[in-house]
Write a structure and sequence with these properties.
This protein has helices at residues 46-53, 123-145, 163-174, 189-195, 227-235, 259-264, 278-291, 294-299, 309-317, and strands spanning 5-12, 18-25, 35-43, 69-77, 87-91, 106-109, 114-116, 155-157, 179-183, 199-202, 218-223, 237-245, 267-270, 301-305, 324-328. By secondary structure, it is of the alpha/beta class. The strands form three sheets. Strands 3, 4, 5, 6, 7, 14 and 15 form a seven-stranded mixed β-sheet that branches. Strands 10-9-8-11-12-13 form a six-stranded parallel β-sheet, with helices on both faces. It has a two-stranded antiparallel sheet with strand order 1-2. It is globular, with a radius of gyration of 20 Å. The relative contact order is 0.16. The structure holds NADPH dihydro-nicotinamide-adenine-dinucleotide phosphate. NADPH dihydro-nicotinamide-adenine-dinucleotide phosphate binds next to helix 1, helix 2 and helix 3.
Length: 329
């Protein structure tokens, strides 16, 4: 009999009511792919929370094993780039949305979707970074490409105590930026200062409908929140600045005007991690491997087991998770 492994399965009944169960699967249950990986660590991202709670239509194939990212070891491969024993990371590509994902002992995926685990970091560390942290790095790289370097002035990070935010604060401060962290959880100020924030502001300052232009406060930003928050961040960005927008934790709308763009030359940089080309992923993970402070990474993450995934998924959509949650399988 083939080996079984535990998996979380999200199903839908004929009335489209969603349910979540823990079940046993075998290799024969996995979807098509040329590489089978033993999942050693995964994580709970905001998108995983939306998928498991059904709060947004993340899952588009039923039933599905959720989980958008994992790190682990190749068990078998018919892909030329990978051999049994290789350590790999997967982020996105529709895994956990349309393809069986990370919340199972094994995953079978396309070899083209995988990147090598950088030297010096463990599968656990890679998932402390996870898709949230890799996206934070994509945001930082976009700001740099636009010339927003530390000497241009402060940068703001919204949703700072969340996953993307915490890693963004950590990376930006390590690179020498003056980081202004915006959070709705004032009690997390010491945590954010410990990660390297130079200032902590209340999310309330950015929550009201934005004026077309407001006092210039920062040269750039990383926004994980969207809606009025992003509109305010844009209206407060100084001449020629840029904001990397990656998230919608506060809403998917963007009630802004063209004023920041046409009167201050501000740029809005869209960030997508799911379909990002392989070369960009390799560069992001190379930089994570060499530039991210592992002590800070440990301080912004906590570890749970497979049995804690469903509760953590509910907590993240309620804004109750600080930093990152790593799942050791
Ligand atoms: P988290 O839940 O860990 O962080 C989101 C943070 O946003 C919260 O911690 C909170 O920060 C803040 N927040 C939550 N609700 C509100 C609200 N109503 N108004 C204002 N602020 C709010 O999620 P992640 O960091 O994992 O993801 C952040 C966002 O980025 C999500 O929307 C996610 O879908 C998106 N994302 C996008 C990716 C892409 O490819 N573009 C990839 C990864 C994530 P605080 O308590 O500090 O205020």
């Amino acid at each position: 009999m083939s080996e079984t492994f535990k998996a979380i399965l999200v199903s839908r009944d004929t009335e489209k009511k969603q349910s979540v169960t823990v079940t046993d699967l075998t290799d024969a249950d996995l979807m098509e792919g040329d590489v089978t990986v033993a999942v050693e660590a995964t994580t709970v991202n905001y998108k995983d929370g939306l998928a498991i709670t059904g709060k947004a239509p993340v899952i588009r194939r039923w039933p599905l094993v959720p989980g958008i990212d994992f790190a682990g070891t190749v068990i078998s491969s018919s892909h030329p780039d990978w051999r049994a024993g290789d350590k790999v990371i997967l982020n996105g590509w529709g895994v956990g949305e349309t393809h069986f994902g990370a919340y199972a002992g094994r995953a079978r995926v396309k070899g083209d979707w995988l990147v090598p685990l950088p030297d010096g970091i463990s599968p656990h560390d890679a998932m402390a970074v996870g898709t949230a942290g890799y996206t934070a790095m994509l945001c930082v790289m976009a700001l740099e490409r636009h010339g927003i370097l530390p000497d241009r002035g402060p940068v703001v990070v919204t949703g700072a105590a969340g996953g993307v935010g915490s890693v963004a604060v950590s990376i930006l401060s390590s690179l020498g930026y003056h980081v202004i962290a915006s959070t709705g959880r004032n009690a997390e100020s010491p945590y954010l200062i410990n990660l390297g924030a130079a200032e902590v502001i209340s999310r309330d300052e950015l929550a009201q409908p934005a004026k077309p232009l407001a006092k210039e406060r920062w040269a750039g930003g990383v926004d994980a929140v969207g809606s009025h928050t992003l509109a305010n961040v844009l209206s407060m960005t100084s001449y020629g600045g840029a904001v990397a927008a990656c998230g919608l934790a506060g809403g998917m709308d963007l009630p802004t005007s063209v004023a920041p763009f046409i009167l201050r030359g501000v740029s809005l940089l869209g960030i997508d991690s799911v379909m990002a080309p392989k070369a960009v992923r390799l560069e992001a993970w190379r930089r994570i491997g060499t530039e991210l402070d592992l002590q800070k990474l440990a301080s912004l993450s906590r570890t749970i087991g497979f049995d804690g995934i469903i509760d953590a998924a509910r907590d993240i959509v309620d804004g109750k998770i600080r930093g990152r949650v790593v799942v050791d399988m």
